[in-house]
């Protein structure tokens, strides 16, 4: 009870400071937002988001403006955040806040000395309201720089309920059962899986889920930090497991060649678009947004998911990704930027986007009723309840040259493995060679 009381006080204090208002004990904050302590100031925010994601994040920024009086300006960076932000800093036009999509990039920014450590208020809120793992991934050298505002649940397999019902199969509990169910789906007239091999990052996600479940969290952490070599037998074993799927022409829509010419949206279309070609597609919770927004599928009825199943006697994996808010030292309004982070740390801020859809929060204090549908609530509950067993996307933790560059490193080598999965040991050796160079650089 004492712990709960302390947590409530901490959250209240965080909210009050973030909003520049007496939110607890000093009367309720009106929709207009206290004393508008940041009136007349502008906070510039850079991030990868565009389209509906940018539109929904703007709703959060507008809520911050309503509370504090601060105006906001969002700048979309495209995928190469580090290059764009670096050039803006050099040009004397640094944003105040950056939404960083990769642990490796956050680490890079911190080591370059670009980041402000989070304020005591933000640190207290994160400590109270987030699982420790999120604090770990937001820290560099023991200093907390990043607040994970938006998370992704990358251990979800999406399926057409109609396709599975037609084949007479139910969502499987183990990896072997998933492949067996896939053959049954294939026998009923559809391929089992649509695989987005044109986007190398989807293949890293396949590998990571298999590896985390099969090898366990300790080896996962070691491999992510390159303290374990990619030539380790555990890597070869995971590649062998993945290779069984890749080389099975019954399981992959169009076989390996077509998979290599299918991007992520295309893989979702093969399951949920007109004239479906497959019954299932593996990827994160964001599949739901594409299925709904582009193909009009009712989530939970026309499109649903089951957790990525346990592999080889291991436990079911929970792999996550996310966007961390950081404050740049060179921003023209870093102090107001930190107030934005303090606001983003609150469940109130998360609830704005949760209601809009296409969003998961790692904040334990966000009421699940804030999400607009049962499937979003289920994925959010799965992510939050996993606590410290969550592991961040391994390729996002690596230097970008290895884990995040199109046509290079892990992305390319796993595409090569999809094309020809006959030599897992050889692929492991190539991965180690690429990793060793990237981590050295």
TrEMBL record:
<dbReference type="InterPro" id="IPR006059">
    <property type="entry name" value="SBP"/>
</dbReference>
<comment type="similarity">
    <text>Belongs to the bacterial solute-binding protein 1 family.</text>
</comment>
<feature type="signal peptide">
    <location>
        <begin position="1"/>
        <end position="23"/>
    </location>
</feature>
<dbReference type="Pfam" id="PF01547">
    <property type="entry name" value="SBP_bac_1"/>
</dbReference>
<keyword id="KW-0732">Signal</keyword>
<dbReference type="InterPro" id="IPR050490">
    <property type="entry name" value="Bact_solute-bd_prot1"/>
</dbReference>
<feature type="region of interest" description="Disordered">
    <location>
        <begin position="422"/>
        <end position="441"/>
    </location>
</feature>
<keyword id="KW-0813">Transport</keyword>
<protein>
    <submittedName>
        <fullName>Sugar ABC transporter substrate-binding protein</fullName>
    </submittedName>
</protein>
């Amino acid at each position: 009870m004492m712990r709960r009381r302390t947590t409530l006080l901490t959250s209240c204090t965080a909210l009050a400071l973030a909003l520049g208002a007496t939110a607890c004990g000093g009367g309720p904050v009106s929709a207009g937002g206290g004393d508008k302590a940041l009136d007349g100031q502008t906070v510039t925010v850079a991030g990868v988001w565009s389209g509906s994601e940018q539109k929904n994040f703007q709703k959060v920024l507008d809520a911050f403006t309503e509370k504090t009086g601060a105006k906001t300006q969002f700048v979309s960076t495209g995928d190469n955040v580090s290059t764009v932000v670096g050039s803006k800093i050099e040009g004397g036009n640094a944003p105040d806040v950056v939404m960083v999509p990769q642990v490796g990039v956050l680490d890079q920014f911190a080591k370059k000395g670009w980041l402000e450590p989070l304020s005591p208020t933000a640190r207290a809120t994160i400590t109270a309201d987030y699982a420790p793992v999120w604090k770990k991934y937001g820290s560099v050298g023991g200093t907390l720089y990043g607040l994970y505002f938006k998370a992704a649940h990358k251990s979800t397999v999406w399926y057409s309920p109609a396709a599975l019902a037609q084949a007479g199969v139910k969502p499987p509990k183990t990896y072997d059962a998933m492949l067996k169910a896939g053959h049954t789906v294939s026998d009923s007239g559809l391929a089992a899986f649509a695989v987005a091999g044109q986007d190398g990052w989807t293949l890293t996600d396949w590998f990571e889920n298999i590896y985390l479940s099969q090898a366990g969290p300790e080896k996962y952490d070691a491999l992510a930090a390159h303290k374990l070599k990619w030539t380790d037998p555990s890597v070869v074993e995971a590649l062998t497991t993945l290779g069984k799927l890749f080389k099975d022409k019954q399981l992959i829509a169009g076989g390996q060649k077509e998979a290599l010419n299918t991007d992520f949206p295309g893989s979702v279309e093969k399951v949920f678009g007109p004239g479906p070609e497959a019954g299932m597609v593996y990827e994160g919770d964001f599949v739901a947004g594409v299925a709904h927004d582009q193909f009009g599928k009712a989530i939970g009825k026309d499109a649903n998911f089951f957790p990525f199943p346990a592999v080889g006697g291991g436990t079911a994996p929970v792999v996550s990704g996310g966007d961390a808010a950081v404050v740049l030292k060179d921003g023209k309004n870093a102090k107001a930027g930190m107030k934005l982070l303090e606001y983003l740390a609150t469940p109130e801020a998360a609830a704005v986007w949760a209601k809009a859809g296409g969003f998961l929060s790692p904040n334990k204090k966000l009421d699940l009723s804030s999400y607009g549908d049962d499937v979003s609530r289920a994925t959010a509950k799965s992510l939050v309840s996993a606590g410290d067993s969550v592991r961040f996307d391994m390729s996002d933790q690596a230097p970008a040259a290895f884990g995040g560059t199109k046509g290079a490193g892990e992305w390319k080598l796993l595409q090569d493995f999809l094309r020809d999965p006959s030599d897992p040991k050889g692929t492991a050796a190539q991965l180690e060679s690429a990793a060793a160079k990237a981590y050295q650089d």
